[in-house]
Amino acid sequence: MTDTPHSLGRKYPGGGRHGRAIGPSDNGDGEAAPPPAGRRADHGETGKPKYWVLGLLFLFCFAVTIMSEAAGTGTISTSFVKTLGKTLCLCLAAIAMDVVWGYTGILSLGHMAFFGLGGYMIGQWLMYARTEAIVLENLASQPIPATPQEIQNAIGSQIFGVVGSSDLPPIWGFAHSLTLQLALVVLVPGLLALVFGWLAFRSRVTGVYLSILTQAMTLALSLYLFQNDSGLRGNNGLSGLQNIPGHEQTSQAVISLAFFWASALAFAAGYLLFSWIVSGKMGSVIRGIRDNESRVRFLGYPVEGFKLFVFTLTAVVCGLAGALYYPQAGIINPAEIAPIASIYLAVWVAIGGRGRLYGAAIGAAFVSLLSSWFTGGGAPPLDLGFYRILWTDWWLVLLGLSFVLVTLFAPKGIGGLFDFLVRKPEADREGDYGPDAGSRRAEEGPEDEEART
Amino acid sequence: MRLLKILAALLLLPAAVLAQDVQSVLQTHAEEAASPSRRSVGVLLADISASGAPETATFLERYRDREVWQRLSDGRFYYAEDTGDRTYTLIDIDTGAATEGVSADDLEQIRPNGGVQREIAGALVAFQLSDPDISRRRTAVEAIARSPSEDHLAPLRASVDTEPDPALKARKEQLADLLAATYGDTPEERIAAIEDLTGSLSVEVRAALNRILATEAGVATDLPEANIARVLEPGRDLTEAAAYGILVSEGLAQANPTDAEIYTALTQNIDGGTVAGVPVALLGDPAERLRAYDALAEAGAVPRRIPPEAIAGAVTSHVFFESYLEPDEAITDAARRVLSGIQTRVGLGQVADRTLDGLSLMSIYFLAAIGLAITFGVMGVINMAHGEFIMMGAYTGYVVQLFVPDYTLSLAIALPLAFVVTFGAGVALERSVIRFLYHRPLETLLATFGISIALQQLAKNIFGTQARPLTSPDWLAGAWAVNDVIQISYIRIAIFVLALIFLALLLFLLNRTRLGLEVRAVTQNPGMAASMGIDPDRINMLTFGLGSGIAGIAGVAIGLYAQVTSEMGSSYIVQSFMTVVVGGVGNVWGTLAGASLIGGLQKGIEWFNPSNTLAAQTYMVIFIILFIQFRPKGIVALKGRAAGD
Question: CB of A192 within 8 A of CB of B600?
Fold first, then answer.
């Protein structure tokens, strides 16, 4: 896609393959600025699948398989394979976040809550099934076989003894069935997003307000889960999730590799799905919503419907990513759902570069791996002579400041570097939210009044 | 009422005449003192109490505790200490002078019996109740309140009239009523005492009334002649199983084997892979278990199960009731009446107490959020680092206390200093980061989040992870207690006052000063304000500094009652956001309304479930999400062109 259309006819392309179906945003003086010549080229955000991303991913997966303990030389440890698998899940959540934020302009501070909910749903089955196996084994040594009620009670007290209860709450009603819990992985985050999004978009809450509202939702959810009587073990969370029922004899090395591949496939599928969504006609509409919501509405598009669809779909994908993540992490507790987690997700996407899917994935992988390297004590201390910088103490300071710098000076994030590589022209959007030149504008003006209220 | 007479006699005698020492009084009644009897000891006790000797209380205590000995050779009384080898050291009662090496043969221990001991104790309390030293009187009254007994009633009543201190007198009267309610001689006296307690909110009054109203569960075939509190209907007031349980525990019915007992019986009777003919493998089915158990019972190996009809029959043929331990119906009626009146007032008091709690929470939210509201209103940017400015203010207070040990003075320094520090930090943040992002409000959110995590970690690196104390001055310690139900700590009152001061200051600043005019102009229309000669850059900078400075002061206030940690800011930030969003942007009253709504709501929800503040917060957030549906721009929304869209 290196065509450079100069004709006015291509300025409002019906197919909207160029992401500017709505037309250029004005500068607030009511005068539509003609698009600068030579800037109409395709760039990252039209989101045509970048097959080289998938190619790289599979090369990477084969490399990891060859070096893993289970199927290869054992160069890298099982725990590192798990870390890589978890990182792929985070990348999947990050591209979902990119679609909802970078493409649609909804800065959701709740997508990690959906991620955690997915984890909780799969965790219920993992924990129930494993506890059931243990309980059956224990009861088998009894002189007479146990009644179903006794088995239920034993499972209940095994799981809930830690919060001083012994009854299985009703929300564990589906926990015996993997199929039903898998359905819940999709349904629970999806329905929550649907109801919340419907309420929020219907009342035209936008911009910063919407961010705070999603943050409030996340806070409410995590506070609810922190309660011991929430039915999900309060702040103990669900644990022992790395043991897969029915595969007790399988070594963790094999399980970790299987989950790594599953995460990679999920990421690939998610990448293709989102690429398809943002590259088509719909992609043009949602980018239009990001750049100027009122204008899209006036053109007759059902803005709320588009937003709701994107919000719900990304929530479902986040839930699935969480369902793959937490069996690898082994434990989930309400702290994982706290608002800060969702803010970090936004941070990854911003550092990676909004408005291009591979950028978000790179950001998530880069920051989360770097973060675990620094906080895990992997980074050597920096000796300044008068002060020794221990990175476990100073990493967050560094991350915070570098995030400010990225926001200020590199709004395109890491993904922006690719523009230098392939000599892509500069992005031509001048809207309010995107990785644009807005921060470098000199003049004050009422251009973004809507965003300011 | 012997003691009453004693005390009356005591009070009638002029004090000057009474300047006698204990020994001489004892010598006057030597025979009584040596072998006291319950009937006759009163005169001796009266005279001793009347003597006015400083040693009286000590003597009475030791007399009661059988530590007083008489020397047979001269008939005088002493305290004695065993020095072994059948010799004692005698200590003079009045002077404390010791005489060593007195043979046991010359001594006799005085052993007041139980009845006499009670008389002495009564005299002792009476003595302390009329002690000239008010603190000793108070101690005596509190001693009675702690362990009330029948003996205390008369001396307490006797001491009421002569009590000079009005507060203590009221206390004594109430205590006398409390004692009389339980220990009064006649039902009339007790009822009168109970009715005197009407309207008292104290915990001990409620406890005493509840003691009078104590009940015990009972069961009989017919309702007995007793002071019945209520009759329990099986099926409505208690389940049939519970009713049958009562019958079993009273020995009126035979126990039905529980599941666990059935299980044990079955395991004990396994016979070659079967239990009473039922194969063990089938026993996973509850019905099969019962069949096997019944077969065992048939064979006489275990007690039979009681059929449901028999249980129902046993339950219906008995009446279950609760009866008062107190037999007199008139007394329990009076107590119930008074107690229900008290409980109504306690309920009202609790509402008032909650309201005060809500007010204090509201003022905290107001202080935490008002700075945010100003910056958000004027600049349309949200400052995620606001919570860290709160933390910065609190740490400023902590550092000041390290250098200035006087807490009042350090607080006086810390408040303005916190403002200066956070004002500076706010201006620096605005100049270095935020002004470049005015056109991208969402990115401000993220950039300030970066600042927030950096500042948080920086505070952790400097001050460590453990909580640091910010001690309040003595005059802010303690709580203002209206009565036993309504009380609020002085710190919370101080925070409330602080919030009021800031409300007034901000209203003045925004509505009556040039700066306020310019701020309002920029809030409503920055472009127009700029063309009128107002420098929006300067206004933005000052407003941001002002908002941050208030956050710093809020930090000192919050630090006084909560602990200072590097994470304290983040626990207020989301609430602050919600306060701003609910209240509406760019208006001090809006923030006040938002803070009232959120603070009041949180306390209101806690009212229903006081033990669970997490649930209260959850429901509050859900309520706010729904609230935004109806007022997307908050309670106080800017209207018309000022609204910006």
Answer: no
pTM of the model: 0.76
- Which tokens sit at A10? 């291509």
Name the nearest CA neighbour of A96 among A311, A266, A375, A389.
A311
Nearest residue in chain B measured CA to CA from A207: B442
**How would DSSP label each residue in A100-136?**
IIIIT----S-HHHHHHHHHHHHHHHHHHHHHHHHHH
Q: Are B283 and A145 an interchain contact pair (Cβ–Cβ within 8 Å)?
A: yes
Confidence at A270, pLDDT banded by 50, 70, 90: very high
Is B590 in contact with B506 (CB distance < 8 Å)?
A: no
Contact A373, A379 (CB under 8 A): yes
Phi, psi (rounded to 5 degrees) for B394: -65, -45
Tell me, what's the ipTM? 0.77
Q: Tell me how close the Cα of B641 comes to any Cα of chain A, in angstroms.
A: 11
Task: Spell out which residues of chain A touch residue B272, defining contact as CB-CB under 8 Å.
Answer: none
Q: Please, which residues bridge with residue A382 across strands?
A: A389
Chain A residues closer than 8 Å to B541 by CB = none
The CA–CA distances, whole Å, from A442 to A35, A437, A447, B439, B448 equal 19, 11, 13, 10, 21
pLDDT 10s digits, B132-187: 778 878 878 887 777 777 767 777 887 888 888 888 888 888 888 888 888 877 88
To probe the interface with B, which of A106, A141, A147, A406 has the most B CB atoms within 10 Å?
A147
Give the pLDDT confidence of A139-154 residue by residue, as tens digits.
Answer: 888 877 888 888 888 8
Chain A residues in contact with B270 (beta carbon < 8 A):
143-144
Contact B626 A199 (CB under 8 A): yes
Beta carbons within 8 Å of B328's beta carbon, 6+ residues apart:
B187, B227
Beta carbons of A212 and B578 less than 8 Å apart:
yes
Residues B166, B173: Cα–Cα separation, whole Å: 10
Best CA proximity match to B222, nearest among B318, B316, B314, B315: B318
Whether residues A147 and B284 touch (CB distance < 8 A) is answered with yes
Class of domain B347-643: mainly alpha
Judge whether B635 and B597 are in contact, CB under 8 Å: yes
* Residue B626 with chain A: CB contacts under 8 Å: 199
Would you list the DSSP string of B602-645?
Answer: HHHHHHHSTT-HHHHHHHHHHHHHHHHHH-TT-SS---GGGG--
Spell out which residues of chain A touch residue B590, defining contact as CB-CB under 8 Å: none
Domain ranges of chain B: 2-129, 135-212, 215-324, 347-643
